[in-house]
Amino acid sequence: ALEFIRNGFLTGFSFFFLGHTQHEWLPVIQIADFGGAYAVSFLILAVNGCLADVALSRPRLTRRNVVAAGAVVALVVATLAYGVARIKHIATTEGPQVLMVQANIAQDLKISPTLQDGLTQMRRHVDLSDPPAGLRPNLVIWPETSLPAPINIMLDDPFVARLKEMPEYREWAAFLEQCRGEWTRLRERAPTHLLVGAESYFPREKRRHNSAYFFGPGGEPLGRYDKIHIVVFGEYAPLEMLRFLRPPVMGPDLTPGRTAALFDLPIEGRAMPFGVTICYEDANPALFRRFVRNGARFMVNITNDGWFRDSMELDQHLALCVFRAVENRVGVARNANTGISAIIGPDGRLLQVVTGPDGRRRVVAGRLIGRVPLSQTRSAYTRYGDVFAWLCIAGTAGLAAVAILRRKPTGDPHA
């Protein structure tokens, strides 16, 4: 119940749920397809609560201890039995072939004020996007904010032409033209659909978005998704008086998107809808679920994670994405700038992971070419959402009410 509250309170913080610790134990986490990560947390709490009761009751165990232990053992056995059976019976088919680029751009370079550093970033992504001979993936994916300039500005010919006429912006206009040259090189080397994370900037409306752009094989724009769940004090300040808490390097506040937009990827003459979450959005179960309810056949998560360098945060963020796959029985292509990039099956299994020559998964450059599995299963969690968590809220409130009503009068010395 408290985890569910924390997930939404003050914009929410969804890291470090107890259930997330079990992300590698596939039979244990399959119950998330009806109760979310909260169901796995419930199991952990039940086991540990039972053990604590037994420890506090020594040396004499009560009948309540025995009954509770039996109930918890039955719960664990039922969870494992369900998990094993569910893994065996998840029917999947081959989905689109994707090429994911993990360029490993250090955050110091990403936020560098020099235009040459920005051009270096883009060239590194283009170099890694060249498919192997004989392969033409259905979709090339670049991570969050992988372009060093707002992409709608970069591709706006009249706007760039006007910038060239203003002496104070000529250097910036020349930089945008160089970026467009790299963009042309990319379209020549990878003439396929492209999903790229970039900033959007609309000067007239004074709007900035953290966006994902979807392009066709000829470079034609097919759609844009603007990040809905922007991060408090990272991407915006909720109140002017709290603006000092935002690092100046983050720039002006971002504007949240409004629509959980789907993109249609053509596969063998059919349009296959998919959704995109950006960075921390895959920590939000309700938002992720909205895409799948809207008809997404598979999901993509693009993220930077360069802020956290070689820390365990990269592993923790991957664990969250594993739960989103299990909850909604959907394949996920997760593309991170510094890692960990992976293709995740609908059962939470890591099917492929970008690794370096020494087997490292964090802070390495590389790419991944693989197919995202498609599941025919629609989970109870996708249909009904957080019913289990609301039942936990109701149960907690009920138990608290009973405890208050049964409290002895304060005049009793044994109260």
Written account of the structure:
This protein is of the alpha/beta class. The chain is built from 13 helices and 14 strands. The protein has helices at 2-8, 26-29, 32-57, 63-88, 107-110, 115-128, 151-154, 157-164, 170-189, 285-293, 313-328, 380-384, 387-405; strands spanning 92-93, 97-102, 139-141, 193-202, 207-215, 221-226, 262-267, 270-278, 298-303, 331-336, 342-344, 350-353, 366-371, 374-375. The strands form three sheets. A six-stranded mixed β-sheet has the order 6-5-4-3-2-13. Helix 6 packs parallel to helix 9 and helix 8 packs antiparallel against helix 9 (170-189).
Biggest sheet, open or closed, and with what strands and sense?
6 strands, mixed
| Beta-strand segment tally | 14
Q: Percent range for helical residues?
A: 25-40%
Secondary-structure element sequence?
HHHHEEHHEHHHEEEEEHEHEEEEEHH
- Biggest sheet, strands in spatial order? 6-5-4-3-2-13
As a percent range, the share of strand residues is 15-25%
Number of helices: 13
Rough outline: globular
